């Protein structure tokens, strides 16, 4: 019992020292580090994200027409890659990661594996089309980079 009280006091001292050390680090970094939204204290939060109202073509306008075309092509390819990445993360990652999870061979009755695979075929078809599209975009990027690299203009 005495040993437990000693350990508890030592643990309390450790926590106090650790808390003060973290506070000093936080103060040294910046005051804004501690401004974290807490649901229990602040039931309403505002998301202040900038909203761009101008289109991509308006942002690319320069006096050089050739440069405008080159930048437009690369910007469009970057947008396409970003969309493909988002689609992969939201549509395909979980399906590939969790296929067949949750069921063991002994718990599945006759034919369940075939039914599960049959339902997965449409997902695999969509994945095949997605991979083909990714391949086309990558080939296009490589071709555009090759043309830019070898261009004499």
UniProtKB/TrEMBL annotation:
Positions of transmembrane segments: none
Domain WASH complex subunit 4 N-terminal: 12-152
Pfam families in UniProt: WASH-4_N (PF14745)
Domain of life according to the entry: Eukaryota
Any coiled-coil regions, as ranges: none
BP GO annotations: endosomal transport; endosome organization
GO cellular component, one term: WASH complex
Name of protein: WASC4 protein
Organism, as annotated: Eubucco bourcierii
Gene symbol of the encoding locus: Washc4_1
């Amino acid at each position: 019992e005495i040993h437990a009280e000693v350990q508890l006091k030592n643990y309390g001292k450790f926590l106090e020292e650790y808390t003060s050390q973290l506070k000093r680090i936080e103060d040294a970094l910046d005051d804004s580090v501690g401004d974290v939204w807490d649901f229990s204290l602040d039931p309403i939060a505002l998301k202040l994200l900038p909203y761009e109202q101008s289109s991509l073509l308006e942002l690319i306008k320069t006096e050089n027409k050739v440069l405008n075309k080159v930048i437009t092509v690369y910007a469009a390819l970057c947008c396409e890659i970003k969309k493909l990445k988002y689609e992969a993360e939201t549509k395909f990652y979980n399906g590939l990661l969790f296929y067949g999870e949750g069921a063991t061979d002994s718990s599945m009755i006759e034919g369940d594996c075939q039914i599960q695979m049959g339902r997965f075929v449409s997902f695999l078809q969509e994945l095949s089309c997605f991979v083909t599209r990714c391949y086309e975009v990558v080939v296009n990027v490589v071709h555009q980079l090759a043309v830019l690299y070898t261009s004499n203009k």
